[in-house]
């Protein structure tokens, strides 16, 4: 197969697997946040802030993988 | 070809150059993505102004006031956006010109200065009155940075006040740069690896400087051991050194990737209309674009917050035990 085809294929697969992992991770994070908020509604604001921060950090890693895949596909 | 709603997010490459470049089909995306890079002319609000000075270091200092002067002088010419020597086509040793992104940074600095001066004038006029308007907003953000980000990590309020100028400057700089990048026709300067690397480098220098100033240079080397006994130093020291450099690297990549990914998604969604060259794609594409645009707004503010927050956390980590001495853990 053309080496370029391999690069594009791997880029697509890479992003797919990354999104799978990130989706699972952030989903679990949101679930934990919801459960904690329902147990103690008075802390809901703090929990929401922490959840957003956690989600942003996890997404940072996902976007790093995304950028590497774009580099693979374009170069 | 019909223009889609201009207030959504068509970047300048898609709209203004469509007539002259007219890429077909699949080349649309490569063309759009090339527009995301740095340029030697000022591109703002869909206009392209060749007024930026070009400064090159190449066996001597060459300064040209803009592109036209450079082309007329004849020694250098622009080749695919970079200045190259006309004699042999080689690149100059160092390109220090004021490019598009540098101009945006200056605009952000100017905006910050204007805001600060306005707020200072308002507060000086009547120090005891509750502020309203711009002073109110800026004061809310400043107090938030101090009380929620710096003080919990640094320890005492006195130490926080010493280092506040840097954190404030960092937060507002990144925030303004990100928000300008969201306006139609403007580029996001934080969407380039160079800008974010510079910001992460300053944070790195600051964190280590604070660590050395607070505990002494010898103790900073001892921190490299990580508080473990001496005989596992051969394992601990490389790990600590790597983690020392990983933190600013992660800061760089996080900010850069978040900004660039958002813009790439937006450009791609709008570019789909040109790729398929049909009207039917337009409503779907524009609806998605609006949604992603709102998400981008959240991401812009969030990334500024996270960059500053992580720098504060690193300062707290570098201060080590000293930070825990005189404050109780503040859950945020």
Short recap of the structure:
The complex is a heterodimer of chains A (75) and B (332). Chain A has 75 residues and is an all-alpha fold.
SSE arrangement:
The complex is a heterodimer of chains A (75) and B (332).
Chain A: H1 3-39, H2 44-74
Chain B: H1 12-15, H2 18-21, H3 27-34, E1 42-44, E2 47-49, E3 54-57, E4 61-64, H4 67-73, E5 76-79, E6 82-85, E7 94-95, H5 100-125, H6 134-154, H7 157-181, H8 193-215, H9 217-223, H10 233-276, H11 281-319, H12 321-325
Antiparallel strand pairs in B: 1-2, 3-4, 3-7, 5-6
Helix pairs in contact in B: 3-10, 5-6, 5-7, 6-7, 6-11, 7-11, 8-9, 8-10, 8-11, 10-11
Which structural class is indicated by helix and strand composition of chain B? mainly alpha
Strand content of chain A: under 5%
Global geometry of chain B: globular
The end-to-end distance of chain B, rounded to whole angstroms, is: 52 Å
- Order of helix and strand elements from N to C terminus of chain B: HHHEEEEHEEEHHHHHHHH
Radius of gyration of chain A: 17 Å
Structural description of this entry:
The complex is a heterodimer of chains A (75) and B (332). Chain A is mainly α and 75 residues long. Chain A has a single domain (8-74), classed as Up-down Bundle (F1FO ATP Synthase), CATH 1.20.20. Chain A contains two helices and no strands. Chain A has helices at residues 3-39, 44-74. In chain A, α1 runs antiparallel to α2 (44-74). Chain A is elongated, with a radius of gyration of 17 Å. Chain B has 332 residues and is mainly alpha-helical. Chain B folds into two domains: 53-97, no CATH class; 101-325, no CATH class. Helices cover 64% and strands 7% of the residues of chain B. Chain B has helices at residues 12-15, 18-21, 27-34, 67-73, 100-125, 134-154, 157-181, 193-215, 217-223, 233-276, 281-319, 321-325; strands spanning 42-44, 47-49, 54-57, 61-64, 76-79, 82-85, 94-95. Chain B has a three-stranded antiparallel β-sheet with strand order 4-3-7. Chain B has a two-stranded antiparallel sheet with strand order 1-2. A two-stranded antiparallel ribbon of chain B has the order 5-6. Chain B is globular, with a radius of gyration of 24 Å. The A-B interface holds A 46, 49-50, 52-53, 56-57, 59-60, 63-64, 66-67, 70, 74 and B 33, 250, 253-254, 256-258, 260-261, 264, 299, 302-303, 306, 309, 331-332.
